[in-house]
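Aim 2 progress update. The chain analyzed this quarter is reproduced below.
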Amino acid sequence: MFGLGWMEIGALVIIALLVFGPDKLPQAASQAGKTLRNLRRMANNARDDLRAGLGPEFKDFDPADLNPRNFVRKHLLEDDESWNNTTTPQLEPAAATYTPEPVDELSYGELPPYDSEAT
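Predicted C-alpha cells:
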C-alpha cells in the first residue's frame, strides 16, 4: 500500500498517536477516511463526466493514458504488431541501372561558371 512497509506504517501510527493524542485519534482517522472517500468519489465522477462528454468514440479512453510514462509504454514500448498487418511488398529490380553523367572537375583556382538565372 503506497510503497510503505510495516515499519513505516507503525511509525506513522505512533506519530499520529503523539500528535493527536489517544482521545482525538479516532476522530482524526474517521475524518481522514471521509475525506479520502469524498476525493475518490469526486475523481470517479470527473472521469465518468469526461467519458460521457467525449461520446461513444472514446468509450475506451483511460485518463491514465495521458501520463507521459504510460503513453510511451503503451504506444512505443509494447510489442503490438496489430498496426503492421500487411506483408512487405517485394520490390522488383529496376530495368536499367542509373549511371551518373560525368562531371567536369575544376582545376585549382578556376571559378565555377556563373548562372545569372540561378542567383
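Residues 33-77 form one domain. The radius of gyration is 34 Å. These observations will guide the mutagenesis experiments scheduled for the next reporting period.
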